[in-house]
């Protein structure tokens, strides 16, 4: 029996004993049986016994798990309205701090400002499978967050606690291969979010060959639930298209012959952990492991989707005027509205000439309100210190990629000596690290060249 399984069984045993004590033969038991959820939550917050606390936590989570949508919304409203900070206590702490800025006053102010529901969530986490249930609870909360007043603060409490509970120090990296237990492999198929896995045979092609790797992060309280996983292709060259990576008839190589590790799919598995970043740690540790096992690897790159490009390009095309979009380019981009444009070589060439400079503009100048790259995948990789290395026209011809990005894919280069400098340039000055090839595309479009570059491999785009 594994250590995790033993610990889970021990928690369940303590909880079962606590429930027998709590829900049988006493005035407290009678209150607990008849109590509404709010009363149970108050009982849990005031509980001093470990077994009774775990039993109360399990009872609350069991009641939540059978709620319909309306009941769940009411439960979240209860947490939002009744378990925020003690306003009277907070006001007193503020008044005290105004006249006494001592360490004790600061501690008291901090404690008073913390919503009571944070402690409630900590205690709910003590129940057997409490962590997994709270992750699912936040997943449900996210469905209501944008439409219900006050749920943003509740979600901030979940995010704060999850940031600690899912700290990198608690995560373990495991290789996923064809010998991994089937219950985990099934989840890899289900959670793949970038390039769909059609079934077991396709999964075997991604895991079994010597030039393929897969790694996942796990948490000890979610032992058989991957948090995030990355699929890696070991190659001799940097691929332009996803077809090169996933082609069933491709020529396989021995792992020791590879010079390049291609991260071609990174999938977050738990929607309830949205906004809790694991991918940056994952890539860095996978790079370290691959370098140790395969010293012949020289390049670490991605082959990444561009999920926001088509939407952004549509907004530019529909604008009444754009000084950087010529009539010729506008006419070429209008060909994208033809559902079969990729079947006409002349149209393909016209679209490519117009689209790639627009793509360079998208990555290098389009920003969010807070000054970050507008593309979510770009934010992730560039924020981790990667460099935008190459734009791959029609790198993915799947229906999903054509809809989201007109088939565009990109390579991000993780050059280990430049990662820190690239990250700092983006964080401090908003500068996107990009190769000369990409920067030259921006010059063709008439934009000022205001991005950083560094030496590295030079790929040739399709022409």
What does it look like?
The protein is an alpha+beta fold. It folds into 3 domains: 3-165, Butyryl-CoA Dehydrogenase, subunit A, domain 3 (Up-down Bundle); 169-302, 3-Layer(aba) Sandwich (Aminopeptidase), CATH 3.40.630.180; 305-444, Aminopeptidase (3-Layer(aba) Sandwich). It contains 21 helices and 8 strands. It has helices at residues 3-22, 27-34, 37-46, 50-65, 69-82, 87-99, 103-113, 116-124, 130-144, 151-165, 182-191, 200-207, 242-246, 279-293, 309-318, 327-333, 345-364, 376-383, 399-405, 419-429, 436-444, and strands spanning 172-175, 212-218, 228-235, 260-268, 299-302, 304-305, 387-392, 409-413. A 5-stranded mixed β-sheet has the order 1-2-3-4-5, with helices on both faces. It has a 3-stranded antiparallel β-sheet with strand order 6-8-7. Helix 14 links the parallel strand 4 and strand 5 (299-302). Helix 1 packs across helix 4 (50-65), helix 6 (87-99) runs antiparallel to helix 7 (103-113) and helix 8 crosses helix 10 (151-165). The longest helix is centred in the N-terminal third of the chain and has 20 residues, at 3-22. Residues 449-463 have low confidence and may be disordered.
List the helices and strands and how they pair.
Blueprint: H1 3-22, H2 27-34, H3 37-46, H4 50-65, H5 69-82, H6 87-99, H7 103-113, H8 116-124, H9 130-144, H10 151-165, E1 172-175, H11 182-191, H12 200-207, E2 212-218, E3 228-235, H13 242-246, E4 260-268, H14 279-293, E5 299-302, E6 304-305, H15 309-318, H16 327-333, H17 345-364, H18 376-383, E7 387-392, H19 399-405, E8 409-413, H20 419-429, H21 436-444
Parallel strand pairs: 4-5
Antiparallel strand pairs: 1-2, 2-3, 3-4, 6-8, 7-8
Helix pairs in contact: 1-4, 3-4, 4-9, 6-7, 8-10, 16-17, 17-21
